[in-house]
Amino acid sequence: MIIGIDDTDSPRGMCTTYLASVLVDELEVYGKVIKPPILARLNPTVPFKTRGNGAVAIKIETDDIENIKQYVIDRVSEMADLEDKRTNPGIVFVDDDVASRLESFYRYAVSTLLSIDDAGKTISDLGVDSYAFKNGRGLIGALAAVGAFCTLTNSNVDHTFELIAYRPKNRWGSKRQIDEPSVWDADALTYPLVWDTVDHTSGDIIFAPHSPDPVLYGIRGDTTDSIFEAFGMIKSEDCERLTLFLTNQGTDAHYITASIDEMIEYRSYILDGVVTSPPRTIQGGHVFFKLDNTLECAAFEPTKSFRDVIRSLIVGDRVRVFGGFKDGTLNLEKIEILSLIEEVMRNPVCTCGKRMKSMGKGQGFRCKACGNRQIDRERVKIKRLVECGLYEVVPSARRHITRPLIRERGGGRKVHVTR
Ligand code: ATP
User: How far apart (Å, rounded) are the C-alpha atoms in residues 137 and 121?
Assistant: First the structure.
């Protein structure tokens, strides 16, 4: 049986992964818990998320199904922050032979916006046993996490791992004691197999949250060996428990490849087009440009040095944009510059060094100072400040699910990694 759980936390505390960590240990008395459990990141643009839109799934081999179900329901009702009106937990108990039929539900949950009714219909169509608290929105993530379990344990599907260390309850909400130099040392030794532990551009440690939840820190990477190597080097306050999750983090699972006219809000896209307005910076440091005269693309202030790449674009450059679509704007996560304009047409320069003025449409150009004339505009080579290839936002601004460029394999594209 695979158990899917979601929506147990609130901005005040708790974390669905912590609940999973506790259950992985406590359910051992009922049967064999198959490790690692799954941490699935779902559509990052959903308006209902607390933080990273994560949901969890735990597989257990057991004959004691009814007791396990009751135990899980009791634990969720004790540990979830049910007082918060946005916390609406959902639990699903899915038989192994039905679970793979949830893979398409996972694909939709990671890339589109689903309704509670969609979850209800899937539950009744597949005859899944479920338990909902309050409005039951968590059933969406719970079903998707079970689908993700089947998808991600297929060795052909891109996946990563995260080792999460949790704090004892008496420390929740207090400042995390982590020895920063040891984290930098761990990064130096285990990068690129371990990534997004630190942000070299800002000099910050980014693998520990600042919220009052039970997470001390999470180490993300491609291999469990490199993650445990980093863990062995990091010095910090004692942790209460430790769980390794198999995840879809850093895999780009959320993107849909489409054209601009097919776009729907609250989805994330990969689109090709031409820059049709010069990038402009507005108050607050956000940078915008238009793609194909239609789509507003934005690099927001937290993306930091990524904005310099966007500011370097000029009208006519061909790009591939990656980002979440909300409020009519594509919030850029990555960009691939496919081709750069190398020359522009300018009014000719006179022998005196001044640029000539146009005499009207089709009338040629004339130097105001010495009266020289010329018929055609000139082609001028321009110096570009960027080169073709893929660029990404700084680590501290990344979506959990977006693939860091250091994980980009093959494709022969030039990759400009920001670490
Ligand atoms: P944390 O990362 O700390 O676990 P969170 O960001 O995961 O918090 P949740 O509290 O789980 O946030 O809230 C997300 C809610 O959105 C859940 O109820 C989940 O079922 C729902 N949800 C997830 N994916 C979708 C989707 N594609 N469409 C609609 N609702 C979704």
Answer: 13
Residue corresponding to tokens 């400040």: 385
pLDDT at residue 51, rounded to an integer: 84
Atom of ligand 1 nearest to the CA of 10: 10
Q: Which comes out higher in pLDDT, residue 50 or 77? A: 77
Within 191-235, strands assigned E span: 194-195, 198-199, 204-205, 215-221
Q: Where are the domains of the chain?
A: 2-152, 160-247, 255-342+383-398, 343-381
Cα-to-chain-centroid distance, residue 338: 23
Fold topology of 255-342+383-398: OB fold (Dihydrolipoamide Acetyltransferase, E2P) (2.40.50)
CA 279, CA 308: separation in Å to the nearest integer? 10
List, in order, residues 6 or more apart from 360 with CB less than 8 Å away. none
pTM over 0.90: yes
251 pairs with which residues across the strands?
A: none
Give the residue from 219, 266, 262, 203 showing the smallest Cα distance to 48: 266
Q: What is the DSSP letter of 13?
A: B
User: Whole-angstrom Cα distance, residue 252 to residue 249?
Assistant: 8
- Give the DSSP letter of residue 154: S
Strand partners, 215: 166
Residues touching ligand 1 (Cβ under 6 Å) are: 6-7, 9, 15-16, 42-43, 46, 48-54, 88, 109, 112-114, 137-138, 140-141
Alpha-carbon distance of 274 to 314, in angstroms, equals: 10
Q: Mutate which of 49, 114, 265 to test ligand 1's pocket (most atoms within 8 Å of Cβ)? A: 49
Q: Return the exposure string of 66-77: e unless at least 16 CB atoms fall within 10 Å of the residue's CB, then b.
A: eebbebbeebbe
Q: Pick 160-247's CATH classification: 3.30.420.340, 3.40.50.970, 3.40.50.720, 3.90.600.20.
A: 3.90.600.20
Q: Whose CA is nearest to atom 27 of ligand 1?
A: 109
Q: How far is the CA of 392 from the centre of ligand 1 (A)?
A: 25
309, 176, 164, 327: which is closest to 237 by C-alpha? 176
Closest CA to 7 of 57, 54, 42, 46: 54
Q: 206 alpha carbon to ligand 1 midpoint, in Å? A: 22
Ligand 1 geometric centre to CA of 41 (Å): 9
Between strands 54-61 and 32-41, the pairing is antiparallel
Q: What is the pLDDT of residues 33-63, one digit of tens each?
A: 999 999 999 999 999 888 899 999 999 999 9
Fold exhibited by the domain 2-152: Alpha-Beta Plaits (3.30.70)
